[in-house]
Design brief:
The protein is mainly α. Helix content is 79%, strand content 0%. The chain is built from eleven helices and no strands. Helix 1 crosses helix 6 and helix 6 runs antiparallel to helix 10. It is elongated. The termini are far apart.
């Protein structure tokens, strides 16, 4: 029990520092900027815009290979987007969603609130794991010809997809929890923000 006290104290301090609009608003604004940048880079991968969920939900080497082959030479741009954008983006959504949980939950958090506060940071860690896995899988893919001939290890493809789905589960859970806390405290603006974030993460359920 004593060993966990420093960790819980750190989570409590992070919760206290995050419970401010000075964290939430900048994080949300920069997230919107990144969404636009992802759309721009996605159109460089393929004309209609690349859908990263295709890779994230692949689970098998065959589906992963088909998705990469469809991008052809655009796979290099996808890798550049991963390096330039998708390692910073998890920090933004984790800071924003954790701040919303703290603001919606109110002061003096209990164990449940602290767990929900930590969920977005766990999602960010899973996102980095997924990104590193995709970079490793695509390390030898540079052209359409490479994409048509490379063989991908099924275990790593499955692990990357599993990390991606677990990431979304944590994000949806944190957003739903923030909405629940906000409803209980009748903090309507936080309810609205939480619902928007939940909707932003929900395409993984139906796409």
């Amino acid at each position: 029990m004593a060993r966990t006290r420093p960790f819980r104290a750190g989570i409590n301090e992070g919760y206290r520092r995050s419970a401010t609009l000075w964290v939430l608003i900048p994080a949300l604004v920069v997230m919107l900027v990144f969404v636009v940048l992802f759309e721009v880079t996605g159109r460089m991968v393929e004309p209609g815009g690349a859908d990263p969920l295709v890779l994230q939900k692949a689970f098998t080497a065959e589906r992963f290979a088909r998705a990469v082959a469809a991008w052809g030479d655009g796979v290099e741009q996808f890798k550049a987007s991963l390096v330039m954008l998708d390692f910073a983006f998890p920090l933004l959504y984790a800071a924003g969603l954790a701040s919303l949980v703290a603001l919606a939950g109110g002061p003096s958090p209990g164990r449940l609130r602290l767990w929900l506060f930590a969920l977005p940071w766990g999602a960010a860690a899973l996102d980095w794991l997924e990104n590193l896995s995709h970079l490793w899988l695509l390390a030898d893919v540079h052209t359409a010809a490479d994409a048509a001939t490379v063989t991908y290890p099924g275990v790593l493809v499955f692990a990357a997809s599993l990390a991606a789905m677990a990431k979304f589960a944590l994000l949806l859970g944190a957003a739903a929890g923030a909405v629940g806390f906000a409803l209980r405290r009748r903090c309507w603006w936080a309810v609205a923000v939480g619902l928007v974030l939940f909707a932003a993460f929900s395409p993984v359920l139906w796409a």
